Amino acid sequence: MSESTMNRTALVLGATGAVGKQLLKDVLKNGSYTKVVSVGRRPVDLEDSIPKDKLVQKTVDFENLEAHREDFKNVNDVFCCLGTTRADAGGAEKFVKIDQGYVLSSAKLIAEENKAADAKLSPVHFLYCSSMGSNKNSPFLYPKVKGQTEEALSEAGFEKVSIFSPALLETVEPRTRPRMMDKIVMAVFRPINGLLGLDQIISVETVGKAMHRVANNSSLKPSDVNAVKTSTIGSLVSRFSNSDIHSIGGDSK
Fold first, then answer.
1. Which of 10, 71, 98, 142 gives a 20 to 30 Å CA spacing to 35?
2. Is 146 a catalytic residue?
3. For this structure, is 73 an active site residue?
4. What is the mean pLDDT of residues 122-130?
């Protein structure tokens, strides 16, 4: 049974991205939050059919988050879909700054601004969209940065951290910046994925729904019992695989 989210506030980071926008739309259409805050570098453009009465949009400068502390206060569930690619960022250094730096700086502020007076950890549930294959020890930049970010979030000071590891993302809306390599990979891999039943392509809409449903229902757990652990500071960390995301975020839910 789903838990009530009445009198609760959701905060969405990265709602202009492919996953973040679908998540925000699902939260606004199907969620029961009293307030939904979207924090990003620019406002999110939503179609008229999406209810916006609970939505508050905050435009922030991630290079100067200290000036925006008020925007991160009094939240309960944080959906973090911030991310980029090396090509979109304009190089490795900028990629790390956005994909990892912005995420961790935001998480730090959120943990600091939403502490319970009598508790060591912030009661916020932080839900992070990472990537399949993340590994802090990888020789490759993208999975290494994702793995490092996951580890840092596990120790960031939240009671609960949920990490989602989707495979190859299939968009439902055109990206603001077309990615030719994504189109090539999808064109080549889609028939292989279908023929071999690999189930390694997942819609961004499914990912968004899965993240929302996990926030709304604490009974939803990763299928692998070893994917739920306690961090060194006591945070409950759950890692949802691509298969878990398909199962939780599917239309049958």
1. 98
2. yes
3. no
4. 98
